[in-house]
Predict the 3D structure of the following.
Amino acid sequence: MSWSSPGGPGRLAGDGAVVARAPAKVNVHLAVGPLRSDGFHELRTVYLAVSLFDTVTVRPGDGLTLTVTGEGAAGTGADAVPTDRHNLVWRAAELLAERAGVPADAAITIDKSIPAAGGLAGGSADAAAALVALDALWGTHATRGELTALAARLGSDVPFSLLGGVALGSGRGEQLSPVLARRRWDWVLGIAGEGLSTPAVYAELDRLRVEGRVPDGEEPASPDPVIAALRSGPVPALAAALGNDLQPPALSLRPDLRRALRAATGAGAAAAIVSGSGPTVAALAQDEDSAVRMAATLAGEGVYRTVRAVHGPVPGARLVG
Ligand code: C5P
């Protein structure tokens, strides 16, 4: 890996702050292969970046400090957001500093809109935004390829949080090929009260497979129908092609999610699926107006803690301002 020598600070605002943001994602196709010997599952997934963003602000500091504000900042369960080296942002900072040969000095604030442990890659978005912001703050001038390599070391979804748009993911999800999407897709995200642990959902999938209650994953579903639908629409084609192998284990761990899925289709969604490892429900809308109406209906029903109308694709981690 080649790094240019640190050339001083990058884009700085008045008080030396650099701000970046990164989007949430929905897996519109998530086919999970068998468990690999490294503890990960082989995936074929189609990621769609949607317009719910976390913002990461970095300032010159002495050592690393981390502050979290916004959605989930006060969580206590799987959705608790740590403010130490257990936070992916902290690890992102240490990794970038180590690779670039600079001291890991920064005061970092994460302003969260994406719920933690929601199946929306919120932690991955924070890590991707932190890489982009710290690269500018420290003047480390990493290429996108170098940042992507660091991202893959941090987590399976972090490379996609950097890239954004629509992409086919393979390997454990970190190997990406961009996919063309010619139109905008509108969704309503129904965010549940309490998060789900991703490893627990994968472990539950393995258990259901051993018991023969779901297919064993030896022949994962093809992403082709979803890719074709994303390219050219219409909405019912994408609705019919959506699929997520992590939905049965998420429902097994959280049976009340059935009601949450029914509420979405009852409110007019073309289709509703669990997003990633859940528990967020992603409901596909006909268009922007119906997404706004659906969000209002679902917010009134009180099935979810939070309801958000979003659209995608949107770009990946970027500097702001
Ligand atoms: O890569 P990431 O840190 O997001 O993965 C969290 C956990 O999710 C892994 O430790 C593993 O239990 C599970 N996982 C998996 N197969 C994948 C991605 C994640 O089993 N492809």
